[in-house]
Design brief:
The relative contact order is 0.33. The protein is an alpha+beta fold. Strands 2-3-1-4 form a 4-stranded antiparallel sheet. The protein is globular. The protein has helices spanning 19-35, 57-60, 79-91, and strands spanning 6-15, 40-45, 67-76, 107-111.
């Protein structure tokens, strides 16, 4: 089964001491994304994210010993809604200007679902 949805995916290294600040930042951003058309926003705090030798999530974001990998995604109804939503969020004065992590090491991209099975709660 495929989907017409559009997915934005994110991977970041967040200072472990900033977990609560990140949660607040993410909650504020999530509310705006929902307001501007996102269907679902999921923020996941790394718990079992192995360090690889050649490739791994920690290596990809240059995660330091005092940081935790965060994996996130936003589900949009379609790419047009996503493009318009991002434009609105980017220009909204309610979006926090200071991020509780190093945005230069944030990895992100937009994806078209290839296989979708099951339902989320």
């Amino acid at each position: 089964m495929t989907s017409n949805h559009y997915i934005d995916g994110f991977l970041a290294a967040v200072p472990t001491a900033n977990k609560d600040a990140y949660r607040q930042y993410a909650a504020t951003a999530a509310a705006l994304f929902k307001e501007f058309g996102a269907l679902q926003i999921v923020e996941c705090w790394g718990e079992d994210v192995p360090q690889g030798q050649l490739t791994s999530m920690p290596l990809a974001v240059q995660c330091k010993d005092d940081e935790t990998v965060v994996f996130s995604w936003i589900i949009w109804p379609d790419k047009a809604t996503r493009d318009a939503g991002w434009q609105k969020v980017t220009n909204d004065p309610r979006i926090p200007q200071e991020m509780p992590f190093d945005g230069k090491r944030l990895i992100y991209g937009g994806f078209v679902p290839l296989v979708v099975e099951g339902k989320t709660a």
